[in-house]
Amino acid sequence: MKPDEKERARRWLAEEGITGDGGWTDPDGRPITANEIAHECAMAMLEDPGLDGAGRLELAFGLLDLLDDYWVTCEMRFAVLNGKVPRAVLWDGYRRRLERDAEPAAITYSLWVDWFEDRGTVAEAFAEVLAGTPGEHRLRHVLECSGPVPWELKLPVLRDAAADPALRDSVFRALRAAYHDFYGDLVPEEALAMLEGLGLPPGTEHLDALRTVLAAGHRNHYRSPAAWGEASASSRDGSLDP
After folding, report:
1. Run means of pLDDT, 10 residues per run, the chain, 242 residues
2. Which of 95, 122, 151, 227 sits at a 20 to 30 Å CA gap from 73?
């Protein structure tokens, strides 16, 4: 986070009569929620005539840091796709926040449901958030919301991550999401081989069920909705090999 982004956003809100930090009040002194502020102010920030495109987006990132509200990312996405603000600034802001240990929940949610589920933007988004030399935190956050990313795009990243013991749990979560997400994507045989190579301890939650559905050739929970329940029941009954 650039040092002044959050403070600039706070000052901008104060000029509009919105004050507080966590407990916010509107110009009339009434309580106002973070989501209400996001809906009222994010677009206005991104259209501020006193700033250039990069400055508007940086201000919006400051608002995101203050509020941690998903709607701010929606307005940023609209502005980027409409050519009102520079894409490079958006991805730089995403990468910096993904390097944090604590998950930047609004950002990972926006990647998952907006950028990664959209076949028109997924290739750009996945490449951009992993550009440069991503640290462990960034890799972990991106992998765990990568369910909708096409298998051929994420496979090389998953393979590299699977070789790092610190990331194997995140690879497992990525494979599980690729199976369970509505738009999740995987190739069962390749996903199963990767899963078996992780060396996860017996008894890992959902490991046996995921192994079973992949071995049966299922690509996605929503294409075979009964398969997961049957695999989970068999695992609980002890009828699956550990």
Report:
1. 82 96 89 96 97 97 96 98 96 98 97 98 98 97 98 98 96 97 97 97 93 96 91 61 30
2. 151
Long-range contacts of 165-170 (CB under 8 A, 24+ apart): 166/136, 167/136, 167/139, 167/140, 167/143, 168/198, 168/199, 168/200, 169/200, 170/139, 170/140, 170/143, 170/144
Ramachandran area for residue 235 (φ above 0: left; ψ -120 to 50: alpha; else beta)? alpha
Alpha-carbon dihedral angle through residues 184, 175, 213, 232, given to the nearest 10 degrees: -110
Q: What is the CA radius of gyration of the chain?
A: 21
Dihedral angle over CA of 65, 136, 123, 193, nearest 10: -140
Neighbours of 104 (CB within 10 A): 21
183 contacts: CB under 8 Å, gap ≥ 6: 117, 147, 148
Which pair of tokens denotes residue 70?
Answer: 């998903």
CB 162 within 8 A of CB 171: yes
* Ramachandran bin of 16, using left for φ above 0, alpha for ψ from -120 to 50, beta for the remaining angles: alpha
Which residues on neighbouring strands pair with residue 23, listed in sequence order? 21
Verdict on whether the full-model pTM lies above 0.85: yes
